[in-house]
Task: inverse folding
């Protein structure tokens, strides 16, 4: 049997590894258009900032790993077409077009940078940040510039803005929504982050719809609905679209989100064809509605399920909470589940609890501020979302709250949760569990 995998980053790599662990007997062939084996796209901003020494450090495994795992990895190879009836694909490698039969196919084609139709987007020095090559171009531009505009205030835009600021540039962050990180945070929590960005000298323009990237042959500035800023180059970080070209051409069903429709086994609408990662839809665990979950953590889990099933095993994907975390300057920001805003858009009534506290006992040196917000569904009082900003250990707190949502825990479960304590590591009452739950309960008692 032969499993063919198209696309070889987070989802493709984990699909191949999972399939190989099911059996050493069958053939695995993976096709990747880039010239490097799988690497961490999430690490690109940290190479730009200088925190990570080189793009080479982002490579997950050397080529020897794939030989050991008996994975036939073909770099600089573009799959041109797929015939799902004949189970055949055509690919171009080193200028030659060849064909190959397969028994099972995994689409891990990822996404592509979504650049809005902004006037001037074709100018020199307008860059997305999606690939290693993009990162290399941005580093080169930064070395010869004094100012930059980052268009898009999501996680990628925030990390890029900070990276460029740390390289000594004057940076303007432009976001069309009235807050930064609109998919991750509610406005009240986003304001804490925005203030920290502004304290470090990054100019933040929210509610700013970009109208034009100005310049004659290369970037000279960016004009938005609030005015105009000078910039020697622009980074467009306005999101990622699922790369579904091959799927559409073969008649595979595309879901309502624009990603490839899959079931909980990562099977597409065509027999023996699977999809995983940014190209595929997921199901939101709270609403049970289709969503896009374009995080590396989702891609690796989807890829594992697709690989196991393609190899004849049995695995299911439970859905997503879009749990995420990042570090912006000295501030850790994490979230899971629905925000208060997104819950209302889904027609859910909520009650929230918000608290500020310390990460250690007040008298113990080195403690950091921590702000937490929990979102509960009003009727059942079950936890459906959480947001945390603080100086340390945010990721593990978000992980705990993610598991609490999946376990169906409610406001009293969290308020009565048993937590550990020692002055150097935590307070006696954990802010993100007890404190925020108590704040929500206080609202209930006042009603």
Result:
């Amino acid at each position: 049997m032969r499993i063919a995998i198209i696309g070889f980053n987070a989802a493709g790599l984990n699909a191949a590894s999972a399939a190989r662990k099911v059996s050493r007997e069958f053939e695995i062939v993976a096709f990747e258009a880039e010239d490097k084996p799988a690497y961490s796209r999430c690490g690109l901003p940290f190479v730009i900032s200088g925190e990570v020494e080189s793009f080479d450090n982002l490579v997950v495994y050397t080529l020897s790993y794939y030989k050991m795992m008996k994975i036939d990895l073909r770099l600089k190879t573009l799959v041109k077409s797929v015939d799902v009836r004949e189970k055949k694909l055509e690919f171009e490698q080193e200028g030659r077009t060849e064909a190959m039969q397969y028994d099972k196919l995994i689409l891990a084609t990822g996404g592509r940078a979504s650049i809005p139709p902004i006037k001037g987007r074709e100018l020199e020095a307008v860059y997305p940040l999606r690939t290693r090559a993009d990162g290399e171009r941005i580093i080169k531009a930064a070395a010869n510039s004094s100012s930059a505009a980052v268009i898009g205030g999501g996680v990628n835009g925030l990390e890029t803005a900070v990276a460029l600021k740390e390289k000594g540039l004057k940076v303007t962050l432009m976001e069309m929504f009235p807050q930064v990180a609109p998919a991750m945070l509610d406005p009240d929590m986003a304001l804490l982050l925005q203030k920290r960005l502004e304290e470090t000298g990054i100019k933040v323009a929210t509610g700013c719809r970009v109208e034009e990237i100005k310049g004659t042959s290369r970037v000279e500035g960016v004009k938005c609905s609030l005015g105009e800023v000078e910039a020697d180059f622009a980074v467009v970080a306005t999101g990622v679209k699922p790369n579904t070209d091959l799927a559409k051409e073969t008649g595979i069903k595309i879901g309502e989100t624009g990603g490839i429709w899959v079931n909980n086994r990562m099977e597409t609408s065509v027999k023996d064809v699977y999809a995983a990662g940014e190209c595929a839809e997921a199901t939101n665990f709270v609403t049970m509605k289709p969503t896009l979950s374009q995080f590396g953590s989702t891609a690796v889990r989807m890829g594992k399920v697709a690989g196991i099933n393609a190899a004849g095993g049995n695995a299911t994907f439970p859905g997503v909470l879009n749990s995420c975390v990042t570090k912006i300057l000295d501030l850790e920001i994490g979230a899971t589940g629905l925000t208060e805003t997104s819950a209302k858009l889904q027609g859910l009534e909520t009650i929230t609890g918000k608290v500020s506290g310390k990460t250690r006992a007040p008298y113990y040196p080195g403690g950091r501020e921590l702000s937490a917000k929990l979102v509960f569904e009003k009727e059942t009082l079950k936890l459906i979302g959480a947001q945390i900003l603080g100086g340390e250990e945010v990721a593990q707190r978000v992980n705990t709250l993610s598991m609490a949502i999946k376990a169906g825990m409610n406001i009293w479960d969290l308020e009565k949760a048993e937590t550990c304590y020692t002055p150097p590591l935590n307070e006696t009452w954990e802010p993100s569990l007890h404190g925020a739950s108590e704040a929500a309960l206080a609202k209930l008692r006042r009603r």
